[in-house]
Amino acid sequence: MRLVFVIFIFLTSTLSGCIGEDDISPEKRGIPGGLALACLQDSKFTKMELHFLYEENYDPIGMDLVKTRINEVCDKPNGIKIKAEMVDFTIDTSWTDDDVRDARWKHGGNAMGSSTLHWYFLFPKGTYSDDSVLGVAVDASTIAIFKDSVEEAEGFLGRPSAEDVERSVTVHEAGHLLGLVNLVYTSPIDHEDENHKGHSNNEDSVMYWAINSNDVGNFISGELPDEFDNADKSDLEGMASGELKTKNQLWT
Questions:
Q1: CA separation, residue 221 to residues 2, 47, 96, 218 (Å)
Q2: Contact by Cβ (8 Å): 120, 86
Q3: pLDDT along the chain (252 residues), means of 10
Q4: What pTM was estimated for this model as a whole?
Q5: Residue among 44, 110, 30 at smallest CA distance from 77
Q6: FRET partner for 113 with CA separation of 20 to 30 A, picked from 1, 14, 151, 170?
Q7: Rounded CA gap, 175 and 143, in Å?
C-alpha cells in the first residue's frame, strides 16, 4: 500500500505533542510505554479494561478496533473489556499535558488495580496546545484524542474521512502506551523515523509519524493504516519475551 500526499509539510523532530512531557507529579504515573510489559505479559495482569471517557457529542468510534489491536499483541487470558462513560471535563478550549493528566486522574482510578490493568482514553472538547496535534499520550496509562482537530484533518472530498483519521490516531496513541517506537527499548530493526523520534518511518504502519498530525488529511489515495506493521510487532514480541531489554517500567 502506498499513500500519496498532495501537500507535504515537514514537522519538527520533537516528541512534544504526540508524546507528552515527563510526569512531575508526586504520584509516579510513568511515561508512555511505562506499562508496556504489564500489557504484553500475563504474569501479573490477566485482565485489562480500556476506559473511554468522552464529552457529550464526542463519542469515540474506534473502541472496538483499539480492543482488537491490543488483543492481537497483549497477553490477557481473562479478556479485555471496554468501559465507556460520558463526563464533563470542564475544559473546552486548549489542553496541555498536565490538563490531560489531571482530567484522567480526576475521573479515573489506579492503572494497576488487582489483576486488572486499566488504560484511559479521553475524548474532550477543544484542541491540544499545539492544534496541529490530533492525539497525545501523556503517561503510562493515559491518552487524549482531540476530535475537534480530527474533524479539521479530514482529507479533500472526505478522503480520508474524519472517522478513518480518528480510528488510526487512536490506535497510534495506544501504540505509544505499548512503547512504540523505541520509547522504552531499542529496536534491532531500523524503523524509527530519524526526524520524528518515537515514530515509524514506514507509511504502512499505524505508527507512521504523520498519522498524528493534521497533515494526515493530505493523504488522497489508499487507506490510512490502522495496524502495527511487522517491525512494530517484532519489537512487541521481543519485549514480551524478554529478548529486548525494556526500561522505565512501573511494573515488571
A1: 8, 38, 33, 9
A2: no
A3: 32 52 61 97 96 98 98 98 97 95 95 93 97 96 97 81 94 98 98 96 94 74 86 98 97 74
A4: 0.91
A5: 44
A6: 170
A7: 10
> Cell for 172?
497510534
Q: Which cell numbers hold the place of 126?
A: 477543544
Phi, psi (deg, nearest 5) at residue 121: -120, 115
What is the CATH code of the structural domain delimited by 13-241?
A: 3.40.390.10
Q: Kindly report the backbone phi and psi dihedral angles of residue 175, in degrees, each rounded to the nearest multiple of 5, phi listed first.
A: -60, -35
- CB 136, CB 97: distance < 8 Å: yes
Go through the chain and tell me how many residues it has. 252
pLDDT at position 219: 55
Count the neighbouring beta carbons within 10 Å of the beta carbon of residue 85. 10
Q: Where are the domains of the chain?
A: 13-241
Radius of gyration of the chain (CA): 17
Residue of 90, 96, 85 whose CA lies nearest to 121 = 85
